[in-house]
Amino acid sequence: MKKLPLLLAMLLFVFTANAQETPYQKAMKKEIGKLMQTDSLPQLQEAANAFARIAALNPKEWQPYYYQALAYTFQGLNNSLSLDKKDAALAQAGELIKKAEAISSNNAEIVTLHGFATMASLSADPGSRGQTLSAQVLQTFGKALSIDNQNPRALILMAQMEAGMAKFFGSGPEKACGLAKQSVAAFEKQNDEALKAALMPYWGKNLAEGMSKNCQ
Predict the structure, then answer these.
(1) pTM (2 decimals)?
(2) CA-CA distance, 200 to 68, in Å (whole number)?
(3) Which residue among 75, 104, 144, 191 is the one 20 to 30 A from 2 at the CA level?
(4) Which pLDDT tens digit goes with each residue over 91-103?
(5) What are the residue ranges of helices labelled H in 58-204?
């Protein structure tokens, strides 16, 4: 019986929090949830369009631009697209990242997304872009980690870049694997529900866990 008042209090808290959500928050949570569950090109475009509509109504918020850019970055990683279409999607991501940065400067999440979009551009044509973009990608992830050295997305994406560099130069995976394990640890410390409530990024845990497992 002692647990009943606590349960009622928790239910009341959840109900109150939900009741206080603004239309903006409700729309963002809905679209973020949909984006995180798809890799379909049509659905990624639908997500980008939805975030564009939200951004138009909330021009002072950086998250709609962030998630719209993320949707285009995911498109740019889709191997079914031609190089031109990948580049077009990533160019749109780049413009949206600039808009997000103009609203929230020195934001580790936005800087990480910038690096991710550049990494996607590199992977679209590594033969001709590797030499020019590799250093830029590493530098961008380095900047994100200088802002927040426990950002799990920056850590795992940096790990993937280091793994690619190690394979290219024939060196060991120790640095890449170390970063992957740091990323897993950082993800474990995060409260996904709190991040979702704040409309903050929480994606990437599967990448970290998969790479860390391969390192064992």
Answers:
(1) 0.89
(2) 13
(3) 191
(4) 999 999 999 999 9
(5) 63-76, 83-103, 108-124, 126-147, 152-169, 174-189, 192-197
